[in-house]
Design a protein that fits this description.
Blueprint lengths: L3 H8 L10 H5 L2 E4 L25 E5 L2 E8 L6 E5 L12 H7 L3 E5 L8 E2 L10 H14 L5 E5 L2 H12 L4 E7 L16 H6 L1 H5 L3 H8 L1 H15 L7 H8 L7 H12 L10 H8 L8 E6 L21 E6 L6 H4 L1 H11 L3
């Protein structure tokens, strides 16, 4: 059992075509409100699909898991941890990692629980997808790799995970890049309906609330087609090829994938219980804690989940050095669609 003080202590490179828009290649934001004035390096432009693989993957026992991860860059460089979402995997960063490694960063890209080569150490561990457990996994990874502090950068589940660590234990987070801004879940607030158009984009969340949805995730062929449909709809201008998708789809063969994904979405809708040992952490997160570490938030213009208002919906949750950028013509999988822009954000926030 992981008690509050234990958690406190823990927390104290896909061939694809280039994105259709110039923003995908140039990495130029359409809106910016910078507060940082430190020295910055301009990242060389790299098109989506420049790289198709990482070097040999590594494994490390960390917390409840044996975590698989890719690593690039010098072993003693400043650390950047890049966190993927669903239905994605480490290949979302296959073009980002070399850009950061070339600037001297040690880049760590882990498979989240239920993905790729990451495995549970015990068959008895509950396959829990709630938000605090995934944050714990990343802190355990940092501890196992003896990383005291890192720049955390993510999208989708990865943004939420990075936000949680930055909010609750800023001493472990040097700076933050968060796609879609502040994604920490408040279960009570999440019971309120959104506008119909926004709810429509979340169709799979409601599908997963049913036994039909679970069975679809457990069926290899249906899971494949379901996740490909999500890719196609949430990244409407990204001209990726079949091989790019298949490299990521292989990560969904993980034996715990369906359990983790189904629990994650049901938990967010209060249709599945979390574990009581994490109640204290979830209570803290329900209070929507502010994030004080230097932050750049990125909004993909064509992502159906991007909130209106050019970041205004979550601006008050970031109280430190801050900048917001909106990327024109980019969809949900921002790091893979616009790797230059993502890498540049990491470098820039590290100099705030």
């Amino acid at each position: 059992m992981i008690k509050r003080r234990t958690f406190g202590k823990a927390l104290s490179v896909g061939t694809g075509a280039a994105a259709a828009s110039a923003a995908g290649l140039q990495g130029l934001p359409t809106a910016s409100a910078a507060t940082g004035d430190g020295p910055r390096t301009t990242t060389p432009t790299a098109a989506s699909g420049t790289h198709t693989s990482f070097g040999p993957l590594k494994q490390v026992r960390a917390g409840l898991l044996d975590i698989g991860y890719a690593e690039a860059g010098p072993a003693h460089g400043p650390v950047v941890i890049c966190l993927h979402g669903w239905p994605y995997d480490i290949h979302s960063y296959v073009d980002v990692a070399p850009l950061l490694a070339a600037e001297g960063y040690r880049v760590i890209v882990p498979y989240l629980r239920g993905h790729g080569t990451t495995r549970f150490l015990s068959s008895r561990t509950f396959r829990n997808g709630q938000q605090s457990t995934i944050a714990l996994d990343i802190i355990a990874l940092m501890d196992a790799l003896k990383i005291e502090k890192a720049v955390l950068a993510g999208f989708d589940w990865g943004s939420r995970t990075a936000d949680i660590i930055a909010a609750l234990r800023p001493g472990r987070c040097k700076a933050l890049v968060s796609v879609s801004g502040y994604l920490i879940t408040n279960l009570e607030a999440n019971l309120q309906p959104l506008a119909p158009k926004a709810e429509y984009a979340w169709w799979y969340q409601y599908y997963f609330a049913t036994d039909r949805g679970r069975r679809a995730m457990e069926d290899k062929a249906k899971r494949h087609d379901l996740t490909r449909l999500v890719w196609d709809t949430v990244s409407p201008t990204w001209d990726f090829d079949d091989a790019t998708f298949e490299r990521t789809a292989a990560a969904f063969e993980n034996p715990d994938h369906a359990d983790i994904v189904i629990h994650n979405y049901r938990w967010r809708l209060s249709l599945a219980d979390g574990e009581r040992r994490y109640d204290g952490f979830e209570k803290q997160l329900a209070a929507r804690p502010v994030i004080e570490v230097p932050t750049i938030t990125l909004d993909p213009e064509l992502d159906p989940f991007t909130a209106p208002g050019n970041g205004s919906a979550y601006r008050d949750r970031f109280t430190g050095a801050y900048e917001h950028r909106t990327l024109a013509g980019i969809g949900h999988n921002l790091p893979q669609e616009a790797p230059t822009a993502f890498a540049q954000a990491v470098i820039d926030v590290d100099h705030f």
